[in-house]
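Note to self: keep these together.
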Amino acid sequence: MAGEGEVDKVTPMFWGLFSVGGFVVAFLLPVLIVMNNLAYAFWLVGPEKVVYAGELAFASFWLSRIFLVVVIGGCLFHGMHRLKYILYDLGAVKVKKVLEPVVYGIAAAGTVAAVFLAFSI
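Structure:
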């Protein structure tokens, strides 16, 4: 928290990550769910287009890997930011200095794990 006369440079960055995560959750996550889980079930894709080459065949292309990392990382940062403010509303403002590194640390660790897993396939 910036004192009087100081400019807070960190909080806008987290609000930006929250915004990007909201975009990912609203626009890209439904596309991922439809294309991976629902397209064949609702006959949007014919059986000749469905090729099972392993569970993670989708991630064999580098652009698909980046897409997965953006979706997972965006969802994590959006969710953790929202969770932080829910906890503030429930009275956890007193532990703000502990809560912020924990929630953003979880989001960052999950994003790093997503990068590691996506590019080690």
